[in-house]
Design a protein that fits this description.
The chain has 675 residues and is of the alpha/beta class. Helix 1 crosses helix 4, helix 18 (484-497) runs parallel beside helix 26 (658-674) and helix 22 (583-594) crosses helix 23 (599-616). The two termini are 49 Å apart.
C-alpha cells in the first residue's frame, strides 16, 4: 500500500530495455531535460504495470508526466489504454508526444510502437447521413439542408468527402469551425447508426476505421467518458486491454457521473412518437399512445417542485410507468428488418433508437433505485422542465467493473487533498487506509485492492515563486454575491499589478460584477469577462496584452494554461463549495452522513479542495513564473476546514497582510514592465 516515495532501481521492460534508458532517449528527442520526478514516475508506473498493482501518481505541472507514463506503456507487453479528460491533452498526446516518442524508440527491439485514437461515434462524420440526408420529424430523408446553417453544413459535407479521399480520420476536432447543431447534421450517435453490415458506406465509415486501427494498435488514446461506457456500463467500445492510465484523474468521478446521467423531457417523448408514427404498425396506435404519455408526464412535471426528489409523488410515478410501457409497446411495433447487407434504413433506425432511449430512461427513473438520484430541473424561458437521474456514487461500479479486472494508473497534478491520497482514492473505488508513521498500512478488509500513492513533486519552488494571500480582514461571503469590500479589494489588487490578472469566480454573476467594477474604476486596463467571446479568443487577448484582466467561472479554473508574465495574479472570490441546492452533491453528502461519515468534509470540502488546487495551479506554469494567489474568503484562515483546504494547495508562502501583498504586486508589475 502507499508509502513514502523513494527512487527505485531502473526497471527492465518486457523487451529487456530499462525504462530509464528509453525515457532518456525520448526526452532527448523531444529536446527536453531529464527531471527526477519524471524518472521516478516512469519507474513506478512500469512496476505497477508488471505487478498488476493500482497506482496513484501526483505529478506537479512541469514534471512531464505524459512521458512518465507513455514510455512504460509503450514498453508494456500488453495493450494499454490512456484516457484523458480534455481534448487539449488528447491532442497533445496524439499530435506531439506520441509521434516523437515513436521516433525515439525506433531502435528498441521487440517493441510495438503502434497507437490509435478512439472516440465516441458522434465525434466522427457519418458518410450515410452526409450522402443520404438527414431524417426530418416524419423520418423522411432530406438531402439538402435549408435555412441559415445550410452553407456551414455543406462545408462540413465537403470536408468529410475530402477526408475520405485523403484517408483522414473524419474526426470533429479536424473539421472546419462549427456549432453543435451544425455538427449534428453530419454525425450520428450509437443508437442512430445503421451498423457497418447494413450501411452501404460501412467499408468507408470513419468510426469503424478508427475501431479497426485500435484493434491493431498497442496503445489506445481515448477519453474518460468512453472508458466509463466501455468498462462500467459494459458497452463494448474499446478492444481488450490489460492496463489503463487515467490522466487528469481528478476529473474522473465527474466524467463517469456525467456518462451515467440521463434526462427525459416531454418534448423528447413527443418527438420520438412523431418519428415512430411512420414506421410502427400492429394493434391500436402505439405512437399515439406514446404521445399521450408525454402529455401525462408534462402534467406531472407541472405538479412537481423543481429540485431533488427523495420521495416520488404518485402522479409522477404513474406518469413514468405510462411512458415506460408506451415506449416498450412502440419499440415492439416496429417491423422486423430483412437483415440484408446494405439494406438498412436510416430514418427507421433513428426513429427506433429515439423510442428505445425514451424507454431506457423512463424505466430507470420509474425504478426509483436508492443507487440513483432523481431531480427535476427548473423550467427557464423557452426551455421546459426536464427530469434527470444520476448515480449516487460511482466508486462501487468503478471498483467492481474496472479496478478488479484491470491495472489502473491514476495521475494528475491534483490527487493529494489535505496532504493525503485517501479522499481521492476512496472516491475512485480504492479502500481508505490508515497512516502509521511514514507508511500507510493495509486495511484488513478482504475486498480491498492493493494500491500505492506516489507524489513525485514539482520542478517549481512554490515557496520562492509564489505567495498565497488570504484576505482575512474581509467579511465572510454572503449569498448575494460580491459586496463592496470584495470589489474594493479586487480593484486595489488589480491596480497594484496594472493588469495581468486571472479572476476565478464562483458564479457568472460574480465574474460580471467584478469585471464591471474594474472597467469603471480602471478604464486604462482591458477587462474581459467570460461570455464576451469564445474562450480561445479571450485567452489569446489575455496573452497578447499584459495590461489585461480575464474574469470567469469553472472552465477557467481548470482549462487555461498561460505561462509567463501574462498571469501574475490569480484571484479566487470564495471557497468553491457546491451549491446547497445541488441535487447530486447534496444527496451524496446526506448519504455520507447517514452511514456515519462527515458529508460536508467527504463531499463539499473535497469538491472545493480539488477546484482550489486546480485554480491555484493556473499561476505557476514554468520555473521562471512569479505571482500571487489571492483568496478573498477569510474562512480559508478562520474555519476549521481551512487547514484541509490549504494543505491541498501548492506549498506557497502564505500571508494575510494586505500591505505586503500590494507591495509585492507593484514590484512584479514594475519588473514585468522593464522586461
Amino acid at each position: 500500500m502507499p508509502e513514502t516515495a523513494t527512487a527505485a532501481d531502473p526497471v527492465a521492460s518486457p523487451v529487456g530495455t530499462p525504462v530509464t534508458d528509453v525515457l532518456a532517449q525520448a526526452v532527448s528527442a523531444l529536446g527536453g531535460q531529464q527531471r527526477d520526478g519524471q524518472v521516478q514516475m516512469a519507474i513506478e508506473v512500469a512496476e505497477a504495470m508488471s505487478e498488476g498493482r493500482h497506482l496513484l501518481v501526483q505529478a506537479g505541472t512541469g514534471t512531464g508526466k505524459s512521458l512518465g507514463y507513455l514510455v512504460p506503456a509503450m514498453l508494456h507487453d500488453k495493450r494499454v489504454v490512456v484516457a484523458t479528460a480534455t481534448l487539449a491533452l488528447q491532442h497533445q498526446l496524439v499530435e506531439r508526444d506520441l509521434p516523437r516518442l515513436v521516433e525515439a524508440v525506433k531502435g528498441v527491439r521487440g517493441l510495438d510502437p503502434s497507437y490509435a485514437v478512439l472516440k465516441g461515434r458522434s465525434n466522427y462524420a457519418c458518410l450515410h447521413r452526409i450522402r443520404a440526408g438527414v431524417p426530418d420529424d416524419q423520418g423522411t430523408l432530406v438531402d439538402v439542408p435549408t435555412g441559415s446553417m445550410a452553407e456551414k453544413v455543406l462545408e462540413l459535407r465537403a470536408w468529410a468527402e475530402e477526408e475520405t479521399e485523403a484517408g483522414g480520420s473524419g474526426e470533429r476536432d479536424n473539421a472546419p469551425r462549427h456549432t453543435d447543431r451544425e455538427w449534428r447534421q453530419v454525425s450520428v450517435n450509437h443508437r442512430e447508426c445503421l451498423g457497418a453490415a447494413k450501411c452501404p458506406f460501412g467499408a468507408e465509415c470513419f468510426a469503424e476505421l478508427a475501431k479497426e486501427k485500435a484493434q491493431r494498435s498497442h496503445l489506445i488514446v481515448t477519453n474518460h467518458s468512453l472508458l466509463a461506457i466501455d468498462a462500467i456500463e459494459e458497452v463494448p467500445m474499446i478492444p481488450d486491454y490489460d492496463t489503463v492510465v487515467i490522466d487528469e484523474a481528478h476529473e474522473l468521478v465527474q466524467r463517469v457521473t456525467q456518462a451515467a446521467t440521463d434526462e427525459l423531457g416531454a418534448s423528447d417523448i413527443e418527438r420520438a412518437a412523431r418519428r415512430a408514427s411512420r414506421w410502427t404498425d400492429g394493434d391500436g396506435d402505439p405512437a399515439g399512445d406514446l404521445e399521450d404519455a408525454a402529455a401525462q408526464l408534462a402534467e406531472a412535471f407541472e405538479a412537481t417542485p423543481p429540485g431533488r426528489i427523495d420521495q416520488m409523488s404518485t402522479q409522477l410515478a404513474d406518469a413514468l410507468v405510462l411512458v415506460r410501457d408506451a415506449a416498450r409497446a412502440c419499440v415492439s411495433a416496429f417491423p422486423r428488418e430483412s437483415g440484408g447487407e446494405g439494406e438498412g434504413d436510416a430514418g427507421r433506425t433513428q426513429a427506433k433508437g429515439m423510442v428505445q432511449e425514451v424507454f431506457v430512461n423512463a424505466e430507470r427513473m420509474a425504478a426509483g433505485s436508492d443507487r440513483d438520484v432523481l431531480w427535476l430541473g427548473e423550467a427557464r424561458d423557452r426551455f421546459p422542465a426536464r427530469l434527470h437521474v444520476a448515480p449516487l456514487q460511482v466508486w462501487g461500479p468503478m471498483r467492481d467493473k474496472l479496478l478488479t479486472d484491470k491495472t489502473v494508473v491514476f495521475t494528475s497534478a491534483t490527487l493529494m487533498l489535505g496532504g493525503e491520497f485517501g479522499a481521492v482514492a476512496t472516491s475512485l473505488g480504492l479502500k481508505p487506509t490508515e497512516r502509521i508513521g511514514s507508511q500507510i498500512a493495509t486495511t484488513d478488509d478482504e475486498t480491498a485492492l492493493p494500491w500505492k500513492g506516489l507524489d513525485v513533486g514539482s520542478p517549481f519552488d512554490y515557496g520562492q515563486q509564489s505567495i498565497l494571500y488570504v484576505a482575512r480582514h474581509l467579511p465572510q461571503p454572503g449569498r448575494d454575491g460580491l459586496g463592496q469590500a470584495q470589489l474594493d479589494e479586487i480593484c486595489d489588487l488589480v491596480d497594484s499589478l496594472d493588469g495581468r490578472t486571472l479572476g476565478l469566480f464562483s458564479s457568472r454573476r460574480a465574474a460580471e460584477t467584478a469585471a464591471e467594477a474594474v472597467r469603471t474604476r480602471l478604464p486604462h486596463l482591458t477587462t474581459l469577462a467570460q461570455g464576451d467571446a469564445q474562450l480561445p479568443e479571450l485567452a489569446k487577448q489575455f496573452v497578447e496584452d499584459p495590461h489585461t484582466c480575464l474574469f470567469g467561472t469553472l472552465s477557467l479554473w481548470q482549462g487555461l494554461d498561460v505561462p509567463g508574465d501574462t498571469c501574475q495574479l490569480v484571484i479566487i472570490d470564495r471557497i468553491p463549495f457546491p451549491r446547497p441546492d445541488d441535487p447530486l452533491m447534496s444527496a451524496r453528502a446526506k448519504a455520507a452522513d447517514d452511514r456515519g461519515g462527515n458529508g460536508f468534509m467527504e463531499v463539499s470540502a473535497t469538491h472545493a479542495a480539488l477546484l482550489m488546487a486546480q485554480g491555484a495551479g493556473r499561476l505557476i506554469r514554468t520555473t521562471s513564473d512569479r505571482g500571487i494567489v489571492a483568496v478573498l474568503d477569510p474562512r480559508l484562515e478562520t474555519a476549521r476546514y481551512g487547514r484541509f483546504l490549504k494543505a491541498s494547495l501548492p506549498p506557497m508562502w502564505s500571508t494575510t497582510d494586505p500591505a505586503l501583498v500590494r507591495q509585492a504586486l507593484k514590484r512584479l508589475g514594475q519588473s514585468a514592465s522593464r522586461e
